[in-house]
């Protein structure tokens, strides 16, 4: 446990002291400030269906944003340890499982701090501009949808971080970092576009329910697609949470594979094709 927390703490403070990290954090705040300052939003808070729908459609965008930020951080973290030979030293002290868990925990600590920072910022901004729109809006969203959305964000992020690890551990030069981030970002964009496509279709026939169930079982797709479908009433909460259980099972299988690939990749110094090695099943 001490080794796990040490790796997580190292990851957390290494990123929190990075200027580039704060640049990524502050970009959404500029957009939020502009919304408060220049956009006059009139919403009928008695229309719960409309409020839930807006919330549901916002979740894929937020998932996309957070995953985009932290996928790059994970790739840089693994590549930095690999190219500086720090990983070889750590491997003799901390096993691959604890290294992955520590890095994941550090990323989730950063995500939690970022969300808390956004909440405090929005609270202060609402007091300064005398506009409590967002807090009133969230207060009218169904609690079951909020809980699922939070779980979906954490599940989706874990999936992309695990995929990133499988590619980044084969880097032998820092110039290859972009090659390690391309596959997970390609998947991220593909799943985001897929969720937008299905959400734009409107109501579904009963014959499509099982097709949707199969699609929603896969963690990144389900995390982006299910919240809007829940908000629109196309699927039930039981349907959504059952897919979440299957997503967790899939993630666990990927997690076991990632540990083995991570250990193999860190100890390998031969120049390899990152795409081929990352897709190999060991």
Task: Write a short abstract of this structure.
This protein has 282 residues and is mainly α. It is built from twelve helices and no strands.
Considering the chains and any ligands shown, give keywords for the structure.
mainly alpha, 12 helices, single chain, globular, 282 residues
Estimated structural class? mainly alpha
Question: How much is the radius of gyration in Å?
Answer: 20 Å
Largest sheet: none
What is the string of SSEs from the N terminus onward?
HHHHHHHHHHHH
Distance between the termini: 27 Å
Global morphology: globular
Can you put this structure into words, describing what you see?
There is one protein chain. By secondary structure, this protein is an all-alpha fold. The chain is 80% helix and 0% strand. The chain contains twelve helices and no strands. The chain has helices at residues 2-16, 19-38, 48-83, 86-93, 96-128, 133-139, 143-168, 177-199, 209-216, 219-232, 237-266, 274-279. Helix 3 runs antiparallel to helix 10 and helix 7 runs antiparallel to helix 8. The chain is globular and about 60 Å long. The protein starts with a helix and ends with a helix. The mean pLDDT is 76.
Present the secondary structure layout.
Elements: H1 2-16, H2 19-38, H3 48-83, H4 86-93, H5 96-128, H6 133-139, H7 143-168, H8 177-199, H9 209-216, H10 219-232, H11 237-266, H12 274-279
Helix pairs in contact: 1-5, 2-5, 3-5, 3-7, 3-8, 3-10, 7-8, 7-10, 7-11, 8-10, 10-11
